[in-house]
Design goal:
Blueprint (H helix, E strand, L loop, with lengths): L1 H22 L9 H12 L1 H11 L6 H10 L1 H4 L3 H13 L5 E4 L8 H15 L12 E5 L15 E4 L4 E5 H9 L7 H13 L12 H9 L3 H8 L6 H11 L1 H7 L1 H11 L6
Parallel strand pairs: 1-2, 2-4
Antiparallel strand pairs: 3-4
Helix pairs in contact: 1-2, 6-7, 7-8, 7-9, 9-12, 10-12, 13-14
């Protein structure tokens, strides 16, 4: 970590001062004070130091994750080279801003799951300077659908908990939706869409009527009932589902609901499919 590199000289100063205080004169112990204060400050501000460095020098996406991205993300492949570079850099940075917690027996969230969680969020904010969605810092991953205090009677595949800034996914459904979004509904993009909406209270969203569900089915052939069953919460909102369709079925969306398509295109600063 960059903060540790910055801290190293001060740590060495403390060792040298301690040696002189022990071997030469106890007054050398005063030399410890300055480096010690510096170490404390570095420790306190280490997240900011590390983030400043990584923004200036973005880490490279590991080759296995890059191959995974190129194989499964149509959104990434359709970007121009400059936006692809931005996507890769942000995909490497995004997990650093989140506290990942696993509910599996292994106790850790695999790197490919972290990558998918990140890749699902990035289409929403790729054309914005602020892309971290900081109000939701915790990501909890279950192996399979789960109950929760909000929905104790429903084994569901995803949810958000606004009060604590938590996003929760079932890994099985998350991976299926990312790797085969034309076959399985993308719960990752769905929940991050809900987060993005909460993070943008000033945005004027399209006003969609209930019959818009039928138009979405015409775009994707995902019936409303199938999407609700896949997520399995009693409160699946229409607007996040529409956002998911905008990104995964852009040509169909433009053909079926051109006015809503243009509104989303402006909101997300997305290129036209034409």
């Amino acid at each position: 970590m960059p903060s540790r590199v910055v801290a190293l000289p001060f740590f060495l100063m403390i060792l040298v001062a301690g040696y002189f205080a022990y071997a030469v004169d106890s007054q050398y112990a005063l030399w410890v004070i300055g480096p010690f204060v510096a170490l404390v400050m570095i420790f306190v501000f280490s997240p900011q130091i590390d983030w400043w460095w990584y923004k200036k020098h973005p880490p490279q996406l590991p080759k296995p994750l890059l191959a995974f991205l190129e194989k499964y993300s149509r959104f990434y492949l359709n970007l121009n080279p400059g936006d692809q570079k931005k996507f890769r850099e942000r995909m490497a940075l995004f997990p650093m801003s989140k506290d990942f917690k696993s509910q599996s027996e292994e106790g850790t969230v695999p790197e490919d799951i972290k990558a998918v969680v990140s890749a699902c969020a990035l289409p929403l904010t790729l054309q914005q300077e602020a892309f971290l969605l900081p109000k939701f810092e915790t990501v909890i991953v279950y192996p399979r659908p789960f109950p929760s205090p909000q929905y104790p009677e429903h084994f569901h595949s995803s949810e958000i908990f606004e009060e604590d800034g938590v996003v929760i996914f079932a890994a099985e459904h998350l991976l299926n939706g990312f790797m085969e979004p034309l076959k399985y509904y993308d719960i990752g993009l769905h929940e991050w869409s809900r987060v993005w909406m909460l993070s943008q209270p000033e945005v004027q969203w399209p006003e969609l009527e209930e019959d818009f569900w039928e138009q979405l089915t015409a775009m994707s052939r995902f019936p409303r009932e199938a999407i609700e069953k896949w997520i399995n919460r009693p409160d699946v909102e229409l607007l996040p589902v529409a956002i998911v369709h905008f990104f995964h079925f852009p040509r169909q969306f433009l053909a079926v609901a051109p006015s809503v398509y243009v509104q989303f295109q402006i909101l997300f600063n997305a290129k036209s499919v034409n």
